[in-house]
Amino acid sequence: MTTVKLVQGANAILGEGPLWCERSASLYWIDIKRTALYRYTPGHGQTGFWLLPELAGCVASVDDGRLLVALKSGLHLFDPGHGTLERLADAAHARPSLRYNDGAVDARGRFWVGTMADDGDGPGDLHCFEQARASRVAVAGFACANGMGWSPDGTTMYVTDSGRRTIFAYDFDVEAARLSNARPFVTFGDARGVPDGLAVDAEGGVWSAIWDGWRLHRHAPDGALDAVVEMPVQRPTSIAFGGADRATLFVTSASVNVSADGLLRGPLAGSLFEVRPGVAGLEQHCVARAWLGEAAEAAPR
Predict the structure, then answer these.
(1) Which of 74, 132, 162, 197 has the least C-beta neighbours within 10 A?
(2) Which residues bind substrate (predicted)?
């Protein structure tokens, strides 16, 4: 039986976006509703906390030590050493009711990020930022674009649409940054919860945090469910491999709108957890300084 360990009792409203940073040997994660960014360092506990000016959907590593932060109004650069935030690009989404949600960096250092409606006002899209100020809609019409990742060989991209309770798979052309051959990878029935955050391990297993499901799923490359990790909270939200050996799976969670019964059964809602699932994760790609353009000149020395 896989052991789930509490590592930070944060009582987050909507914990999300865990990101392992190899440069600092730390995990960054956000509480969307509190507009807060946390840093957790194994062996030391919480080593950073910053309030952001607005809702943030996700963060990504830049290869110079800064973070790319997808705020509702656009992409920003955050310097953890100085606590400074610099606007990089205005939001690419078309409607003010949308915000950035989950995102990831591909093997060429491009940033991919989904959008969703906070108020249910229509669908969102999957955006690809070829460079910091040059984005395009890669796939339109997601009900709620969420966790994403790539197969170990980089030829398949997985994108979660939580609104459709489906993880989609696409053929991925890494050189052209193009997706094709969309097909359902896993579809969840009503009684199984909703797929949220996603991570891929070194064996090609696709992990999904199951919102309202009290668990994590691992699906084999053919989509078959081959492992379940029971969680002590109703709403695990997102997952990321990290640690020195990339073999620790960090799990964020939410307390938002959890019923009294759910809180009684899962009083650690909103906490950060870790799991040792017996398999390592993939290398975490960084946004390259060249991708930043002019902003690269302001990089910390």
Answers:
(1) 74
(2) 99, 101, 119
